[in-house]
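Worked Example 4.2. Read the sequence first, then its structure tokens.
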Amino acid sequence: MIRFSTAGESHGEALTALVSGLPAGVPVDLEFVNRELWRRQQGYGRGGRMKIETDKVHVLSGIRHGKTIGAPIAIEIVNRDWKNWEEKLPVETGDPAKHQAVASPRPGHADLAGALKYNFPDARYILERASARETTSRVAAGALAKLFLRTLGIEVLSHVVRVGRVELDRPARWEELTALAAREEVVLGCVDAEVEARMKAEVEEAARTGDTVNGIFEVVAHGVPTGLGTHVNWDEKLDGLLAQSVMSIQAVKAVEIGRGVVAAASFGSQVHDPIHYAAEPGAAPTRFTRPTNNAGGIEGGITNGEDVIVRGYLKPISTLRKPLESVRFDTREPVSASYERSDVSVVPAAGVIGEAMVAITLAQVAQQKFGGDSVLELQRNLRGYIEQIRQF
């Protein structure tokens, strides 16, 4: 079973990820992993923290001579900002006078609920772990999952479909997504230049007024075979697993599979994908085809051979330069909420994090389906399965 966990605080010494269960023999390109971390830091509207950090992985275990060895993989990503916080967040007692409290909880954050739950007098320790800085570790783990999926012919990418009031009103082609991922300059991660320019104007307007704005990202998994996931138990359905993994990303408040939102306001004849059959065999594993993909590649909790499409709906960033009303933890007096250095918009970065979570989830169900302690064994099992469904 592929599993991962993360540790570390936003301004702590380092972030870590522990990934276990990857089969032996997965080629690991650390330049690819570091580029994924770079992609996470990009996008118009990011805050000053991105100018401080240059995220790179330091592998401590589980990878030797450029390949996984079947053992747990431990990854460290150093926080360069730690030098500014070492005395404020010491491991040992240190000087309490140097503690930098978050004295008033910020609406929309975990500050108040977390402080009450863990009995803290301020929200500093809640902020440190609840911060989206934690997703750096997820992207590193997700990069390993992507490299594993590549051995099975599966690729995962994302793009931005909405920022504020501006939305892309057409499907993106896979070729557009690959070109987008290869860019050396990331603005807002939209495949359409004209739409992206209008999205940028939305971010600029929010920045001028001290506000924040977010939107919708779409993750697409390409080359996914029929049969991942299952219908037999509620907690094993792939759409449910994907929804949970993407919903766990900070600021995501809704998840959509395929055209789920449109489907809720449509007649069945308008949204269900017709099934066709190709008389001649092609490159696809099965001759069953669909002219549309409103289901987002999943029916009954099982992949159906089409691209898996997952959308994450992001609320605006909760930290505002024009803070909302709050109260002090100590005196209960009304004040403006605390302000911590933050972003105006993070939609393209959230898309990269979404890719990581979708990749990890697909890697888990792919391993469950095809088994194997090595990549060669897994690939052999996949080939046998593909031959089986081609003859159906």
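Now turn to a second chain, presented in exactly the same format:
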Amino acid sequence: MPSNPLFLSGVIEGFYGPLWTRTQRLELFDSMQRWGLNTYVYGPKDDLHHRLLWRETYPDAEAADLGELITECQARGIQFLYALGPGLDIRYGSSIDCAALEARLSQLMDLGCRTLCLLFDDIPDTLHSEDAARWDSLAAAQCSLTNHLLQTLNQRGPLRLLFCPTPYCHRMVQAEHGGKGYLEIVGRQLHPSIDVFWTGPEIISEEITVEQIQALTQILQRKPILWDNLYANDYDGRRVFFGPYAGRSPELRSQVAGVLCNPNTEFPVNYAPLHTFASWLRSTPQNWEPRLAYLDALRDWLPRLASAGKSISPVDLVLFCDSFYLPYSQGPTAARFYDSIATLLSNDPSTWTEDKINSFLSEAQRLRNFCVQISEVEDRTLFAALSRRVWELREELELLIRYVQFQATPLHRGSRFRSDFHQPKVYRGGFVPALQGLLRLEADGSFTPIPTSEV
């Protein structure tokens, strides 16, 4: 773990989706203190005052709740970072908007917050005509406003200010989102004490390398802070991620001013991801093994999965979590299981051996049974967070099991399999799946129309 107190390490509540509860946040703060994480970022998109109502200060009751959270963080040695996203409709040259920003951030400082952030992500990348007459670029307008706020707010007391650029990953820079030369302007014009967020080569980056960050540092003229979306799932409600903090060498820590993890929207499923993230922060390049850290995290998590029925097997838990591993990959046990069924189905049923059939059925039924068993956990909030994914996985496994059993019966050879439980337009039905059937995402990232004969 970096010993520099200015190095930010911690958790971002910055997703699109229901806010975490006070109880969940206090549980998070306790875990962060135990694991040595030092920063909590408050910036959930569903807090209307974060983004839509950014001009309005919090009512007294909501301000008091935030003040409580700030106090709870400080009691555990954790920095409370408040993030504000005014970029949807701000007029950078408006004295009224500038005063509103000062009032908003001053309210947080009065509550005890000393680490603040302005987010200019996911916004239109054009200037209002009056702003365009004053600044020749979006980056220049944003830097001017942010620098002014730093100077003004510093008069109220010590302050650390962070900045999220409009192009916050390399792909956005290549697309000139925010304008040509955006980051170079930020590097030259943003006050050197203001930190800059970055997500890596992509919004969801499979890998972030030392070389990539060193090149970025030259442009920004400061070390960036990683806003890491590896575990973020708000862009796909069907997925959740349990896997290890991977694709980032521990050597990366010396190249950045901090690493903050933006995890799954559903708080109860974040134990193993944040456990491995904290392990990565404590590791060295010589002793960092992501898979071992992941297995250790699952062992630590297992007692929290106390069941009203049969005790959960550690081996079954690994297979289940491997099925919801990381955005770009499945865990090894799930990958092997997928390969076995894909290979089986690619061959004519007449060539299936009894060993191959039994091996698949044994694994599929084990995972299917675990889906039933996880529904019996005593922590109902945890099951509620998992339920949609659990039942979808179970439904697919049931279908595959029935299909293989049907085709493995000599009497059925050559017959088409139908299921009493999976009916057209009901199973995998609905408007969104219909839309998803119109374009095919190719391996190179391009989209092509799917012929109507395949839809």
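Notes for the reader: The chain has three domains: 8-287, 314-412, 430-455. The longest strand covers residues 8-13.
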